Amino acid sequence: MRFAKDNIARSGLNLLKRLVFEESSLEPDNRRGEERQPVVGEVVVVVLSKTGEPLGKTKVFVRDLSKSGCGLWSRTRFDEGAIVVLQFAATAEKPPSNRKAIIAHCRGHEGSGFAVGCRFISEGTGET
Residue 50 is inside which H or E element, if any? Predict the structure, then answer.
């Protein structure tokens, strides 16, 4: 029985990787003016209230990145129009940074995940 569970878990992980890291059929039309760069990694998303107070946070996968926004894959649904702060971890080339963004769209289903589009509304900073 353990063998079957391991195979199911591995199959689910492979499907998630395909959906997150490859251009999939869930990808909406390309509305960005800038070229998208594929990205592999995670960011922390902090959801803000209307007054700018943090309401909660979650980790999501980054699918692609452009100058004006990014595509994410999340297990959590986000409301269109919600304001969030994306917390990018430090890399060998760049220090950690935060970008404020608005959720442009969130498509998918509970249990299988959501393709999320974010439009940046601020330049990168070192603080939230």
Answer: none
User: Residue 92 — φ and ψ, nearest 5°?
Assistant: -65, -30
| Domains by residue range for the chain, with CATH | 2-120 (2.40.10.220)
Q: Decide if 117 contacts 71 (C-beta within 8 A).
A: yes
Supply 91's token pair: 């890399």
The C-alpha atoms of residue 71 and residue 35 are separated, in whole angstroms, by 12
Instruction: Record the pTM.
Output: 0.70
Q: Let me know how long the chain is.
A: 128
pLDDT digits (tens, 9 = 90+) for 52-105: 999 999 999 999 999 999 999 999 999 999 999 999 998 888 899 999 999 999
Residues pairing with 105 in the sheet: 117
Which H or E run contains 39? strand 37-48
For residue 14 the two structure tokens come to: 């492979």
The answer to whether the CB of 106 falls within 8 A of the CB of 100 is no
